[in-house]
Request: fold
Amino acid sequence: MRATIRDATMTTPTMTDPAADPSARQASEAPPAGATLPPRPLVRSANAPGTGTAGRETDGTPGRPAVDLSDVSVYYGAFRAVRDVSFSVPTHAITALIGPSGSGKSTLLRAINRMNDLTPGSRLEGEVRYHGKNLYASDVDPVEVRRRIGMVFQKPNPFPKSIYDNVAFGPRINGYRGNLDDLVERSLRQAALWNEVKDKLKQSGLALSGGQQQRLCIARTIAVEPEIILMDEPASALDPRSTLQIEELMAELKENYTIVIVTHNMQQAARASDRTVFLNMGEDRAGYVVEVDETVKIFTNPREQLTEDYISGRFG
Ligand SMILES: Nc1ncnc2c1ncn2[C@@H]1O[C@H](COP(=O)(O)OP(=O)(O)OP(=O)(O)O)[C@@H](O)[C@H]1O
Ligand SMILES: [Mg+2]
Reply:
């Protein structure tokens, strides 16, 4: 099954607490791909919604990156957290963001689905293009952005609902008219969790182990079939076995999705990603890109001494 460019979800009540924000809340109310609901356009227009134009305006040229950041700076009030960041995110690949604490990895990840908008006082300069379309253009619907670009967080955060209802949550709110049982099963299979939970779908998601909870959150995210999945240290709270499971899962998911992962774990970045963006923090405390390259190049023959020092554990 191939994901289409529409309808991501952002189903997390933590971090910037989108659950408390109505616009974020709506993000999990998107119709899933394959649903019988019409797709919604990314760009607001005077035309009636649901005319089947979603995706078309962002289809772009084949081979074009899914996301392109150019000269992106993000501010929290007067503080510039990242400066002049440029890199691109290739489709159907895993891009890792690495760098010391405070270098702006999470900030940049949140810039990709406009989640920083939910932080009062945050502001972005530069451009984040999604299939060529500037995501911060005034005609772009940020709720739709978050539908198409889903997010998984460091700490697994299932809803206090059954396993089934966790996965069915987004599709249900959208009035999904396909076979919900099939959708739940497919999502759980894609998240490599089905075999472990198929006999206890009515049990609470909170009763699962940490690693299972994180896979449940991944299932919940992909139940509405985003094109891109952003993961902020998705395995850092997990044991080594669960961590490896998440890494294996990411390798499977990239067949259908484009993934951007933040990780502190150098082995994980080296093992799991195709492309690596190394960020460092300047004297002004703003994060900046030191080097972007194929992961194998970054970890075997980086261009910059700073990269070499970081990946070999000499700082950070
Ligand atoms: N909501 C916020 N308000 C103000 N400053 C913030 C906010 N979020 C992050 N920052 C600041 O922006 C900078 C980058 O933070 P960010 O969380 O993106 O870094 P990070 O690389 O993800 O760090 P870590 O590895 O510790 O998770 C830091 O100086 C941080 O203090
Ligand atoms: Mg972070």
